[in-house]
Write a structure and sequence with these properties.
1 helix, globular
Amino acid sequence: MVKSMEVLDSYGSVDVSDSVATWHEVEAGFWVGNTHGAFLGTVEQNSAGWIARDHTGGFVGKYPDAAEARAAIG
């Protein structure tokens, strides 16, 4: 008898469509975002620009300024 296996994604998505994201600069050039206690992601400045990462640490994109990078996440 073959048992089936169900794979569950341990990272749920974060829906920010009806929520306002808040961003906090925790150290120079490093921002973290959340909405109602849910972590949205990070924005970090490096020599190439501003790097946005989602709530799982996945690369979202590279942007010319922090505001655009934050807007890409939420």
